[in-house]
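Data availability (excerpt). The following record was deposited with the supplementary files.
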Amino acid sequence: MALSPHVDWMYNRLKSAYRFTTVKIATDQELCLKRVWERDQRIHANVSYDLLSRINREIINRNIQCEFMNENNRAKEAELIKNIGLIIEKTEVSL
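Predicted structure:
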């Protein structure tokens, strides 16, 4: 599931105890890295671009299986919100 075995353990424990849905946010790797790098660094972990790129590649290589996928290369915020709403409706999750 993730780079750390602790995250895998947590994911598996949550999956056995709760009902939840995973959603893959599909974005071009370079665009994703650019967006993450441009975030306000005062409120995010300070990591190098090279480390961020390596982590992103390792996650992509894990090929994590998700129940749904949301494309986010050119989508506007309203479209992303609508798509998440449709996923919620399909999974019958009440907020």
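Summary of structural features: Strands lie at 23-26, 68-71.
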